[in-house]
Amino acid sequence: MRCLDATFLIDLVRGDPGARERAEEWDRTGEPLSIAAPALAEVLQGAYFRGGPSLRVLLDRLSGVEVLATDATVAEEAGRLGADLLRKGTAVAGVDLLIAATVRGSQQILVTRDRTFSQVPGLVVESY
Questions:
Q1: Tens of pLDDT, residues 24-55
Q2: CATH code (residue 105)
């Protein structure tokens, strides 16, 4: 199963050809999709701020997408992951750590163009 990052959805709303092609492919195949709750919050903040067609397109795209919960277990894993990365000299934003821990824990593929996620050990990342 693929888990959508905020970057994918933002690019899709903006008409990015790569994002649009992927979304059309998933629509044809009926592939189930998910999104981590922190990524959902990120993308909804921007969509509600912009309003109008961007908000409608995003809300339509998110219908039927499973939301992966962030709980205490995920938060603990995100903290551990962030500390491990800091020891290696890599600082990652808290929201990205929560997304990475959520997706990694659910053993899904994160669809993103954000290169930060490629530094997370054990996280499978797919670009578009």
A1: 999 999 999 999 999 999 999 999 998 888 88
A2: 3.40.50.1010
Residue 92 contacts residue 119 (beta carbons within 8 Å): yes
- Structural domain harbouring 95: 2-126
Q: Positive or negative CA dihedral for 89, 93, 98, 103?
A: negative
Picking from 7-21, 42-56, 98-112, which range would have the lowest pLDDT averaged per residue?
42-56
68: nearest Cα among 33, 44, 119: 33
Given a cut of 90, whether residue 82 has pLDDT beyond it is: yes
Token pair of 56, please? 């409608």
Number of domains in the chain: 1
d(CA 64, CA 19): 18
